[in-house]
Amino acid sequence: MRLDKNTYGTVILVYVLSAALIFLLFRFVHIWWVVWPLTLVILWICLWQTAFHMVPDRKSAGSSSVVTAVADGRVVYIRRAYEKEFLCKECQVVSIYMDFWDVHANFWPVTGSVVYTMYHPGQHFLAFKSKASEENEHTCTCIRTNEGKDVFFKQLAGGFARRIVCYAEEGLAVTAGEQCGIIKFGSRIDLFLPLDARIVVSDGDKVRACETVIAHL
To answer: Would you call 130 a catalytic residue per the annotation?
Structure first.
């Protein structure tokens, strides 16, 4: 495992603020049963934030015909929807919600080439709400496989997420299971798949990025 390169500043800030708080506690609060529990809570927060921003080493189950989860989390719905930004057609949508305890690094769901990417500023509604897909800050990316299949996904900021990182560039060749970015704090991935894709997950399923197969193209 390694720390995501775009989160060094965030993690350092957490540790600096935590050290300052612990110093103030020991300097000005002289009640041991207050100081030590609070110190342990602060240290736990440091460890949690470190783990939160780690990029796990995983063996990918994806390929140009096998779509894997972009992120750790839980499938909150599977439905049909019209993708109007780039594909301009009806798709199957698998939505994965990440909570505070999930690793928030994101990974390419399929092998192919990036044919579209776009960042959209927006609101910060809770990520599991349906309107978040259109109104929240998000980044859209489409990968075209060697067989000509398009896999489109949205990285959606949530109520607390304030930064989306995406490594997509048009023309970039990508491999399923390699890191494609990170979303800081609670957020969601919407994965748009062709109507003839065979989805193999269900509502409520817990999924792991790279390892959980979402669909076969």
So the answer is: no
On whether both 110 and 84 belong to a single domain, the answer is: yes
Residue 24 lies in a domain: yes
- What span, in angstroms and rounded, lies between the C-alpha atoms of 158 and 172? 27
Q: Model confidence over 105-164: pLDDT tens digits?
A: 999 999 999 999 999 886 656 555 555 566 678 899 999 999 999 999 999 886 555 578
3-state secondary structure of 214: strand
Given the residues 65, 113, 187, 202, the one annotated as active site: 187
> Residue 67: beta bridge partners?
215
Q: Which domain holds residue 13?
A: 2-55
And the tokens for 69?
């989860």
Bridge partners of residue 116, in order along the sequence = 142
**Domain count within the chain:** 2
